[in-house]
Specification:
The complex is a heterodimer of chains A (252) and B (311).
Chain A (H helix, E strand, L loop, with lengths): L5 E10 L2 E11 L4 E5 L6 H8 L7 E6 L2 E2 L5 H7 L1 E4 L11 H12 L12 H13 L15 H14 L4 E5 L7 H18 L2 E5 L3 H7 L2 E6 L2 E6 L1 H6 L1 H8 L7
Parallel strand pairs in A: 3-8, 3-9, 6-7, 7-8
Antiparallel strand pairs in A: 1-2, 1-4, 4-5, 9-10
Chain B lengths: L2 H18 L1 H25 L8 H14 L6 H23 L4 H21 L1 H4 L5 E2 L13 H26 L2 H18 L4 H27 L1 E2 L6 H14 L5 H20 L4 H15 L3 H16 L1
Antiparallel strand pairs in B: 1-2
Helix pairs in contact in B: 1-2, 2-7, 2-9, 2-10, 2-11, 3-4, 3-9, 4-9, 7-9, 8-9, 10-11, 10-13, 11-12, 11-13
The chains are: A alpha/beta (252), B mainly alpha (311).
Chain lengths: 252, 311
Amino acid sequence: MSAPLLAARGLFLAFGGVRAADGVDLEVAEGEILAIIGPNGAGKTTFINMVTGYLRPQAGSIRFTGREIAGLPPRRIVRLGIARSFQIPQLFTEHTVLENVALHLAARSGFWAAFTPLLSAERRAEALALLSGLELAPLAEARADQLDEGARKLVDIAMALALRPRLLLMDEPTSGVAAAEKHAIMDRLVAALRREGVTAVFVEHDMEVVARHADRVAVWSQGRILAEGPPAAVLADPVVRREVIGVEGAPC
Amino acid sequence: MRSPLAVAAGVALLLLLAFLQPWLRFVSTIALATGLAVLGIMLLLRAGQVSFGHALYVAAGAYTVAFLRPYLGEALFLVLAGALVATALGLLVGLFVARYRDIFFGMLNLAFSMVAWSLLEKLYSLTRGTDGIRVVRPSLLGLGLDGAAWDWALFLLALVAALLAGALVARYLGSPAGSALGAIKTRETRLEFAGIAARRVLLQAYLASAALAGVGGAITALATLHVTPLLAYWTHSGELVFVAILGGTGHVLGPFLGAVVFELVRVHAAAAFPDAWQMILGFVLLVIILSAARGLAGLLDDLARRLGRRG
């Protein structure tokens, strides 16, 4: 196996007495889609926050393409090729969907061209193509604060994708999305990721989504990795079922 | 897009007024100079930040003209120098205040401007204190003008500066950097996760706002031919914010529209009710805020839309 795209070693971060990461080792291989599951408060979002530079681990290392990134500010980490989306969508609410995406496209390439239009023909086309990939094109001209929760969520992810990352971290991409739409949205999303060759990590509570869309699962519990492996095996593990999924005994 | 039409109509109206009423040439020049400074305030308002100290940069532009006039006879160079000095000062202050937001941003700007005001008042040997400094009328484009010709020339200079600045700012607001200003207002942290340094975006706008205020101040000094510390006083800063809200922040025409209306109301109200004109201004702003939150520019925009739908 080649060197992992992302490798966390001995990550430690405690908030007072709560250990969100208590010696975590986790690797992500190029091109894979890894799901992180676990109970609330286990430290899953904290992991994303550490990788993207929002929080600095108290111990341990995070290497991205072999380079140490732990403790770098978010801006530097983004430029290395790691983007994230948020559990609660973080949109520029007074901009349109198209502008939200275009601003992220612009951030990637020559942002300081202060006198070129944001919505140049080129950038508009690129933003629309990206939105079409997630079937968001009809919403392009809508203001971001007028969308429903599901659409906000997807726009949030589209913004992250507009940064053309090598690694995308998504915090609960399907929470707040109507149950009936979850799979459709994830199908679109995963197809887009595979098409662009983006490696992805997503935190998820819906085990069906995990089983269907992840290549590999890591179970995060009390600041530790309780189990990791292919979804079928991990989700069938009795310990995982008891501790995380909250079901006794074997799967039926 | 109706903008070019609206700009052309505004310019034609100003020219007509200046032609019909000679005293309006002076008022229009002052209004355009104020509009330039307010254009800078508008940039900061786009980022959700209110500066209660931008009179500092107006004063910087005006005093630069006053200080340099004995050595420099060309109005254009004086205006340019005013812009440069204001921008340099803006960099010095901006590096500090661009780290702060909201009430802290507003108050720090206020503090810097009040320091400048007191220096202008107290350093009598340099600034002649509250007496201020008289500015000898310079030449414009090498022409020694006086009387009506000078009024016209300065009015046209202000008009050209306003058009140029308006075009540049409109261009800037449509660019990624200008768009990021609005993002500072709504979701600044997300900008950092996009790899954009919010502080640098704001500093850029701050420098532009200082430069615009500097040009406005320099033109004001050339129009009044007299500068006093009052230019840097906090009520003047407040006036700029007042005009920005009156005019609206949605369009670059807003600041100029606001400034013209402000100056006209001030002149007429001051003539008719010498003791109560500030109260009248206050009521005008109250009515605008309650009935048209997007200011005069927003009001015009709505009107144009309604007419367009009917026609």
